[in-house]
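B., you asked whether I could sanity-check this one before it goes into the benchmark set. Here's the sequence:
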Amino acid sequence: QVQLVESGGGLVQPGGSLRLSCAASGSISSSNVMGWYRQAPGKQRELVATITSLRATNYADSVKCRFTISRDNAKNTVYLQMNSLKPEDTAVYYCSLGYRLLRPDYWGQGTQVTVSS
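And here's what the prediction gave me:
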């Protein structure tokens, strides 16, 4: 059983920053892909960023140069540093873990990020 627990969401003004964290626990292979997806009201869940255990990264075009994904393999934790936030970044952000790129096997419960003045 694998569990993912996110933290760090909240309300921020446009142009502000937030840092999300996600800690994974349970039976986890050392070779994996962790990532962040988001879902805005009335929209489908979409990729934000992924990072492999070798730290190869992949970003959605909409967040490139503003968001940075990183991870601590010893802690099975992934981070998402979000800068220059825009109202359109408002969504529930979900942490993911899987063993194939863009094919998550596990999801966190989600954390709300709201960008508003």
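One thing to flag: The longest strand covers residues 18-26. Otherwise nothing jumped out at me.
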